[in-house]
Amino acid sequence: RQKFMDNPLHFLKLSSPPPVVPVKLAIVGPPKSGKTMLARRLERDHGIVCLSAGEAVRQFMSQFPSSNLTKEMESHLRAGVILPDALVIEALEKIMLSQRCQTRGYVLDGFPNTIEQVRLLTEFSVIPVQIIELTLSPKEVHWRATADRHSVDRTLPLHDSAPILDVKLSSYKRHLDVVRGHYEKEHRNWNVLEGGRSKWWLNDMCAKLINEQLHTAQRYLQKRNRGDAASIFGLCVTPAECESRLGEFSHYCPVSLATKHQLIDCSFETTMKFTAEYRARYYKMAGQAELDLFLADAHNYVAPTAPHLLPDQLPRYVAKAELKMLFPRELAFKGYCPVTYVIGNKRYEALKPGSKDHVLEYAEELFACLDEETMEVFLKQPWLFHATPLPAKLPPAKVPQEVTSLPMLGTWSRPWLKPSSLR
User: Cys bridge to 359: 20, 159, 318, 328, which one at CB 3.0-4.6 A?
Assistant: First the structure.
């Protein structure tokens, strides 16, 4: 109190603390890979809640013994059948509504394991920001299980015999590729760690992932609260959500259009590494340099202050199969490549016939480019090439020559048929 009274302006000018962001982790791996031990250590060091499927069910049934969900789960347990994934995940979602989970975060121990569990978690909006896969060879799994069975600390028998472990390993490997592929495609948050490394190394790597997750989310929230543009890389934004919230430039880079007056299509960039949010809209950039410019002053690159807006007519690639369906439409510019002609200062020598493998449609006309390089040039600035007039003189058309119209071999070797003898 006395320090504040001595210099109150010093404390009033301090920056506000970063927003509270909960940690959202999931650890998966084969049996005996150390998932539970690592999750418990993260719970102890970071104050998050460690939740497994069984632990969530037990907590829910003890906290809400009279709920309909508890009665339904009890009926399954009395019948001696496995609880359906829908009931387990519903109980897990209810437990996650606790104050500690909402403020500190959680770590899922050995969950999810199947694509059905992933689908149910997504329906309940339970999406881990980082998923850690612990890898361990089958030989190491059986070695650890043997050591556990002969441990003096074991008081009760567990389901970790060699045949049971083989069944668990087979089930885990059967579903792993599908689950990994889903999270790598939709959220790009899958991390692989070697389960055979020391516990201190694993703990340090997980702490690094947690710190990166918190700093990324805090920077995003701080910039968004100030009304500035913020990068969304690492926030688990799905491609479908990004597509639905694209701004007025769609998949084109607004910085390249403003600074270079070029159309740079960023639809092939699916990692969202160069995607930013501004005014609740997403904008894709061509690279890190363009992203830095947009984050520094996004107001100058979006409507209404942007120097160039996205034109109504955009070029697009026409595949060879689609070109056949567009018959009898003819190629504009007599089939010659407009890019080589314009870049070649509109000289006669620069007229090159275009290829049907590199056809583009722009302004309701079809243009054939020479190769992929000229096609990329046309896609960036099509307005420079589509209205170019053809010269008055064109190269002679290439007429195919029939083989039968050529003279036979050895004809001119006969002296009476030589041109000099025919005079």
Answer: 318
- Dist. CA 139–CA 73, nearest whole Å: 37
CA distance 223 to 295: 10
Q: Please give the Cα distance from 30 to 195 (Å, whole number).
A: 9
CA distance 284 to 312: 18
- Residues 365, 368, 372, 374: is their CA dihedral positive or negative? negative
Whether 348 contacts 371, CB under 8 Å: no
Report the distance separating Cα 31 and Cα 110, nearest Å.
9
The residues, ordered by sequence, that sit 6+ positions from 418 with a Cβ below 8 Å of its Cβ are 412
**Using CA atoms, how far apart are residues 302 and 273, in angstroms rounded to an integer?**
19
pTM: 0.81
Task: Check if the beta carbon of residue 134 is closer than 8 Å to that of residue 35.
Answer: yes
Q: What is the DSSP letter of 108?
A: E
Contact 30, 172 (CB under 8 A): yes
The length of the chain in residues reads: 423
User: What is the pLDDT tens value at each position of the chain, 423 positions in all?
Assistant: 888 888 888 877 777 777 888 999 999 999 999 999 999 999 999 999 999 999 999 999 999 999 999 999 999 999 989 899 999 999 999 999 999 999 999 999 999 999 999 999 999 989 999 999 999 999 999 898 888 887 777 777 777 788 888 899 999 999 999 999 999 999 999 999 999 999 999 999 999 999 999 999 999 999 999 999 999 999 989 999 999 999 999 999 999 999 999 999 999 888 899 999 999 999 999 999 999 999 999 999 999 999 999 999 999 999 989 988 988 889 999 999 999 999 999 998 899 999 999 999 999 999 999 999 999 999 999 999 988 898 888 887 777 767 677 666 665 555 555 555 545
Chain-centre distance of CA 373, in angstroms? 27
Q: Determine the Cα–Cα distance for residues 298 and 277; give it in Å rounded to an integer.
A: 10
Q: Tell me how far the alpha carbon of residue 48 is from its chain's centroid.
A: 27
Q: Which residues contact 238 (CB under 8 A, 6 or more apart)?
A: 186, 187
The secondary structure of residue 300, as a DSSP letter, is G
Strands lying side by side in the sheet with 365-368: 316-318, 359-362, 365-368
CA distances (Å), origin 223, targets 87, 103, 116, 231 = 39, 20, 36, 9
